[in-house]
Amino acid sequence: MIQHCPTPTELDDLELLLSGAYAPLTRFNEPGSVVTLALPDGATEAELVDPEGLPLARVAADGSLEALTHAQYGPFRRLHLTPAQAREQHAGATFVPVVDALAEADLEELRGLGRVVLVALMGTGTSSLSPVALVRATLAAAALLDDASVVAVPLPSHGDAQADHALGAQVVETYAADDPVHALAESAGPLPTPIAAIVDEDQPEPEEQGLVLFFTGLSGSGKSTLARALMDLLLEQGGRTVTSLDGDVVRRHLSAGLTFSKADRETNIRRIGWVAAEIARHGGVAVCSPIAPFAETREQVQEMVEAAGGAFFLVHVATPLEECERRDRKGLYAKARAGEIPEFTGISSPYEEPVDPAVRVDTTGRTIEDALDDVLVALDKAGYLHLRGTDA
C-alpha cells in the first residue's frame, strides 16, 4: 500500500470525516459529494499521512476510512473538538458559525444570546483571514463577551459555493445537535480594537506584504536580466529584504543532482516555489527567474505563495522564440537543434504561455530600462512596489 500526503483541503476533509463532523458522510468520493480524494498513479487505496509523514488513516478502494491516529500538532489544536466533545463540554449553549472577524455590531447581537460557542470555520480557503488569524480573532471576540467559548473546525472550501454552504450548515448542525444555532447577518461595521489589530497583522497593505516576483520565459528571453535589474533597484531603494532565486543559481545550490528531464525540471521549480513562499511568509521579497514552462507547476507555486500569505506577481517575458534563438548567448539552441540537448524548451519540449500574467513584456529591440519600466508600472498599479523615478 502506498503512502500519500493529501492536499490541505483533503487533510481538512479527512479530519472532519474521522471526527464525525461530516455525518452522515463517512467516506471520500461519494457520488455527488464535493468531499473527494485524488490518489496518485491510479492507486485505489493508500495510507494517508500528514506533511511530516505521520500516518493518519488508511483509505480503501471504496473511499472508506480506517483511522490510525489524529493530528497532534498545529496552532490551536486544543480547540479542534469533535462534535461529541463539543456537545459534552458545551451542552445548552447557542452555536454560532464564524467565518470572518466579528464586528462590534456582531458582538452586540451575540450579547443577547446568553452562553455561546463560536464555531470558527477555519479550513483551507474559507475565509479572507488565514486560519490562524481567524481563530485568534474569534478568541479575541470571545474575550469581549460575557460567556463565550471557541471551537475550531477546519471546514475547507471546495470551489462550489452552493455545496460548501450546505456542507457548512450541516457541520454546524452536527456540532450543535439539539442546541440552537444562530447565524449572524453579514456586518460591515467597525471592528473592536483587539480584533482590528489581528486583522491588520494578517492582511498588511500590498506594499508591506511578502511578495514573489516570478519571471517566466524562454531561455534567452531576457527574464534573468530583467530580474537582476529589478533586484538592483530594490536593493538601492532599501526597506525590504530581497532574495534572488535565479534558475541557474538554484540548480547549483538547491537542486544539484537533478537532471533536465521534465520531472526533475518541475521538481526544481517547486523547490524554488517553496523557498519563495517561505520568504514571502516572513514579509520578504523573492525574485525568481526560472523558465518554468508548464502552467500547472506555475499554479502550484502560486498556491504555495498565497497559502503562506504572500502575493504572487507573474511576469511573462514574452520575447519570441526567433529572437531568443538569434541571441543564443550560451549556444543552447544550436545544441538543441543538433539533438545534443533533449527536451529543450521551445525546441523539443513545449512552453505553455501564461494566460493571465500580471504583466507581459517583449524585450525585442528594447533596452533593459525600457522593458523593465513595463514591470515597474504594473507593480506600481498593483500597489506592491513603487520604484519608478528611482535615480539611476
Mean pLDDT value = 92
The major sheet is characterized as: 5 strands, parallel
The N- to C-terminal Cα distance equals: 60 Å
Total number of helices: 13
Counted up, domains total: 3
How would the global form be characterised? globular
Assign the CATH superfamily of the largest domain.
P-loop containing nucleotide triphosphate hydrolases
The CATH architecture of the largest domain can be named as: 3-Layer(aba) Sandwich
How large, in whole angstroms, is the Cα Rg? 25 Å
Please give the CATH class of the largest domain. Answer: Alpha Beta
Got a strand count?
Answer: 12
Strand order of the largest sheet: 9-10-8-11-12
